[in-house]
Amino acid sequence: MENKTSSEVLSRTEINQLSRAGRAIVIFEGEVYDATDFKGTHPGGPKFIDDYVGKDMTEVFYEEEHTKIALRMLKDMKIGTLEFSNSDQVSQDTVTSHSRMEEIEGEEWRKKVNPKLGTVWQVFTNLDHEEYNSFINDPKHLTRPGDEHIMFANPVLEFFSRTPWYHVALFWTPIALYKLYQGSFELSLLEYLMTILFAIVSWTFAEYALHRFIFHMEVWMPDNAYLRTLHYIFHGIHHSFPMDPDRLVFPVTLGFIAWQIFHFAWVHIFPACMINTYAGGFLMSYMLYDLGHYYFHHSQPLKIVEYRKKYHMYHHYKDPDNGYGISTSFWDQIFGTELNMAKKQK
């Protein structure tokens, strides 16, 4: 069957035919959407779309309290309007009385930034402080990141701005294992294990502090175009385009600089016999965090970590001013930045 256009009226029979042909067709507020290309990058995973293929998802969309961001994504997927029958009268009445799509009428964030032309320079030249904060905290969802968004118009800069997730594993794993191997000769077994445990706990605090006070410095940084651009490169881009797979893990070059700073501090804080083990444990914890971060964004996670994905997605799509812990919510609870979704479940 040929693809329909957004102006066509689709019957239930036509919707079922498209669904059986492998298209992820869903109905929302009496309109018909093709979410096929969106399945792989849906923040909650493809299952949440698969469960409603060929069906009306209006009620569950309301229940899950989706934001305007989700409405914008949905708007781009429209392929037609549902042809109502007598059995659809209840749904039709609901659409007439309550249309969430009206919430995004006239909203066009692309007026000042075109993601296909290199966003870094446009952020530097086109956005003031308030516009920048609004831009990065309004996630733009990409179904084809390489085609829909670039950081730099210069192809060389653009190439080196991308960091595939496996770079982190390939570069840091040998260093972390070597440090742990060295440390195994310097401490007793109990001291060795306790030092690794201390390093893991230390990393979770460092993760929280870096995320809250450095990566989210937009809440306190002065109105300065250079600072805005620096922040955008470090973390703003991730909040603006959270599903871009090459902007998720920390670049290895910048990570190596941070590693040198941390290592310098450890040399002046810890006994010499403890440094290798602590450094190895800390680095391994960082790797698991960064790779886990990628996993949360681009997978349907195992049940054991499903809540961590939901927690982090809530931070991105609903409350960027809270929920700074990714590996754990412990420090969010301690410092009063726990997300409302967590508080409601208690």
Automatic annotation (TrEMBL):
Signal peptide bounds: none
Matches recorded under InterPro entries: Cyt_B5-like_heme/steroid-bd, Cyt_B5-like_heme/steroid_sf, Cyt_B5_heme-BS, Fatty_acid_hydroxylase, Scs7
UniProt entry keywords in alphabetical sequence: Endoplasmic reticulum, Fatty acid biosynthesis, Fatty acid metabolism, Heme, Iron, Lipid biosynthesis, Lipid metabolism, Membrane, Metal-binding, Oxidoreductase, Transmembrane, Transmembrane helix, Zinc
Enzyme Commission number, as recorded: 1.-.-.-
Gene3D superfamilies, A to Z: Cytochrome b5-like heme/steroid binding domain
GO-annotated biological processes: fatty acid biosynthetic process
Pathway linked to the protein: Sphingolipid metabolism; Lipid metabolism
Transmembrane segments: 187-210, 248-269
Annotated Gene Ontology cellular component terms: endoplasmic reticulum membrane
GO molecular function terms noted in the UniProt entry: fatty acid 2-hydroxylase activity; heme binding; iron ion binding
Superkingdom in the source lineage: Eukaryota
Cofactor binding: number and manner: Binds 2 Zn(2+) ions per subunit that likely form a catalytic dimetal center.
Binding residues annotated for heme, in chain numbering: 42, 66
Domain Cytochrome b5 heme-binding as annotated: residue spans: 7-83
Membrane topology: Multi-pass membrane protein
Subcellular location: Endoplasmic reticulum membrane
Co-factor(s): Zn(2+); Fe cation
SMART domains associated with the record: Cyt-b5 (SM01117)
A Pfam short name: FA_hydroxylase
Amino-acid positions noted as binding Zn(2+) in the UniProt annotation, renumbered to this chain: 211, 216, 235, 238-239, 293, 297, 312, 315-316
Similarity comment text for this entry: Belongs to the sterol desaturase family. SCS7 subfamily.
Function: Plays an essential role in the synthesis of galactosphingolipids of the myelin sheath. Responsible for the synthesis of sphingolipids and glycosphingolipids involved in the formation of epidermal lamellar bodies critical for skin permeability barrier.
Protein name, entry field: Fatty acid 2-hydroxylase
Species the sequence originates in: Euplotes crassus
